[in-house]
Amino acid sequence: MGREPRYQELSPSEESFEQSPEKLKQTHFGWGKQSFLVAVATGTLFIAVLLAIVVTLGSAIVSYRLTTPSSTPSSTPTSTPSVTATAAPIQSAVADDKTASSTDDSAALLQISSCGGSAEEARALGCIFDVMMQLWMPVECYDQALSERFLAEGNWTWWADSSASRAMSDEEIRRGEHDAVYVAQDYHVTHCIYAWEMLVRTMRNQQPMIQELISYDHVIHCRHNTLQRPDDGGYVRGVRAPTGFTRCASYEVWKNDLPPNQISSTD
After folding, report:
1. Please, are residues 157 and 183 in contact by the beta-carbon 8 Å criterion?
2. Which residues contact 132 (CB under 8 A, 6 or more apart)?
3. pLDDT at position 206, please?
4. Staple 158 to which of 95, 168, 177, 235, CB 3.0 to 4.6 Å?
């Protein structure tokens, strides 16, 4: 009786009828079997969905673990060592260049050039004869522009002897092969002015200088024999200028190795 309304509900257009007990039993058995199959199918589907979710999550985790270690190490060893390997030689090369440059500068700074003791030796050493100083000097200390200007303004006559019996040509005097030359007193005065101007030019231009420019004896000589002579130099007919051979260096070198003077510069 309890199942009749359900059947009516399933087929409301049909007329009600009585069924035999055998048919009722058969009908009851068929419905139970159908319910069982539906339950099994639903459970199977649910388990399949769960397995699919688990498999998907597992694949994602495995993929993440495989991707993360491979990317991190690849960035570290590829970029960092290459930068280090490149930067190290560059820094080393720069340091080596600075060291070599410093060494070269120190060697050049401490060098004092000389011209030997004869015209032949001076030429072999690359020295030049400066007529205004009557000195063979290293080329780095020779102020050609200044020397030529003074010579052009002076236009002196050079004599080979004290009696002024033989004049020397400009070409001969420039060769610097003479032991001494005799010249008028005004050359002597101009020579001292030339030396002082040469000193100022070398200091201002930070160029090397000959030792005579920092010689206190030479300053006193010029003061007493030219600019401050008691007799004003009026009776002096001429002066003897011997040929000399000097040395050349920067002031940084000379200040630690000053040429000796007979007259004290501190008194």
Report:
1. yes
2. 146, 147, 150, 151, 190, 191, 194
3. 94
4. 168
Structural contact between residues 189 and 238, judged by C-beta atoms closer than 8 angstroms: no
Q: Is the dihedral of CA 194, 197, 203, 204 positive or negative?
A: negative
Q: By C-alpha distance, which of 211, 221, 192 is closest to 251?
A: 211
DSSP alpha helix (H) spans, the chain:
4-10, 21-109, 119-124, 144-154, 170-175, 185-204, 216-222, 251-254
The residue written with tokens 């200040």 in the block is 255
CA neighbours closer than 13 Å in the CB half-sphere of residue 17: 8
Quick one: DSSP state of residue 141? G
CB 264 within 8 A of CB 224: no
Per-residue pLDDT of 196-216, as tens digits, reads 999 999 999 999 999 999 999
Is residue 130 exposed (0-12), middle (13-18) or buried (19+ Cβ within 10 Å)?
buried
- Decide: 199 and 141 in contact? Cβ < 8 Å: no
CA dihedral 66, 71, 72, 74 (to 10 degrees): 120
Q: Which two tokens stand for residue 229?
A: 């002579």
Residues of the chain scoring pLDDT < 50: 1-35, 38, 62, 64, 66-90, 94, 109
